[in-house]
Structure formats: structure tokens, C-alpha cells
Amino acid sequence: MIINVHAHIREGDDPEERIHFYRAPGMDKVCLAGDNKLAMAAYKLADDFVVPIAETDISKATPADIEAFKRDGFRAVHFTEPPAPYDDERFFPVYEKLEEIGMPACFRTGDMRGGIKCRIEYTRPAFLDSVARFFPDLYIVGSQLGSPWFYEAMAAMLYNKRVYFDMSGGVLRGLPLSWFRQMFMFKDVYLLPGGIRHRLHDESVNQDIFRKIVFGTGGPQPEVVVAFYRDLFQNLQVDFGTQSLVLWGNAAKMLGISESSGASTP
Fold it and tell me: How many Å apart are CA 211 and CA 112, to the nearest integer?
């Protein structure tokens, strides 16, 4: 079972085509964000498959807007192209409302296609770390493992209980296996059995870090990204329990979806 937390539906897209595009073997849910009207139209066509995510301009959003999204049936809110760092205090009232009503916040982090007028430095994962520290009960999902600020994403996941990242984006799928081996060795000796001794010879994958990953495709067909995740699972010897969290469990928990039935919880 798989929940795709990062998928697009944009102005001009056909909802039925988008639904068909993102269906794949083992794909149980897809979270669609981009054009709010089209995301909700897709949900009405396939409410057993589509999870509608509201996209909004973070510089203009208000707590009242967040409440309206909740009433309209959106399950989370997606932010992209911020005019200031994500941890700018001007945005705190929105995060506070999201935390209060239990709606996850999804953030575009890192690389963006050419032509978008945005300072990508404002989307660095370090800013999500700050948001998580001020709003510890808010579920946060960043995209693309923060590319190119990967270690910031690792630290944000390691030190904040409700911060997660997906591994969407063409940059990640172009990296060699050796890079992933090194990246997922990210550890803090103070959090490991044995206390503060050094770990020069420990080259094991940190399963606790991998447990903070969620499945997200972005633009490519799901089959392409599923193969990428499965290949990583096999080569990094990710245990089955962690795989289940990455593919389904993490997203199901934050979105309030029953793992046994695929149905939304009350």
C-alpha cells in the first residue's frame, strides 16, 4: 500500500486524466495540490483515491483561510514560492491555526524549475526546523529532501518529531547509491546507545532517519518513483517496518487515514 503525498494538478489539467496518471499498482491514495478547484473536482470523481491538498500564497494566507480550507474538505495545506523564509514570524498565525486544527503543512523546499521568480534560499529546510520548534504539534512535510540542502533536511527530521521529507525531484534520482549510503548514515551520538563515544567505524544506515521519509512523486509517473524507492530499500537494507512507514504509515497518521481500510478516520 502506498500514499503519494506529493502530486500535482494545475490550471488546464483534466481531473480524470490526472487521476489516471497517478494510479499505479499498489498506489492507494494520491494527494493532489496546485489548483484548488481542480483538486476538489478530482476528489469528487474519486474520493476513495484522491486526497485534496489546498495550495495558497503564504504571504496572503490568514487563519480564516485555513479554517475555510478545513471546512471545504481539504486535508492539508501546501506552500510554495515564499517571499521570505518559511520561519518568518509574519507566517506564524497561519502555522498556529494549522497546528490548532490538526492540518499538516506541506512545503516546497529546494530546487525549482527555471523561470520561477523566487529566492530558493527562502525554502531551505533549516527554516522548517525553526517552524517545528515553535509549533511542535504541527505535522510538516518538505519536498525533495531539501535539495541541495540535504543535511539541513536530515537535521530537521532528526531533531523534530513531526518533520518529514519526501524524495521527489530529478536531482535525487540522478545521485549514485554511494551518496545515499553516506547521507543516511547521519547520526547524533548523543541519541544512540552507548552514549558519547565516537562512531568512526559505524557505517550503518540510520533507520530512525529513514523512518521520517514519506513517498512522493512530484511530476513523474508513480512507477518510476516506486522503482527508485524500492531500489533504495533493497540496497540500504531498510527493514520492512520502516518501508511500511515510508510508503503508507507516516502519511496515514498525519492525514488521519485508516491503515487497515484506506478510509478516512472520523
Answer: 26
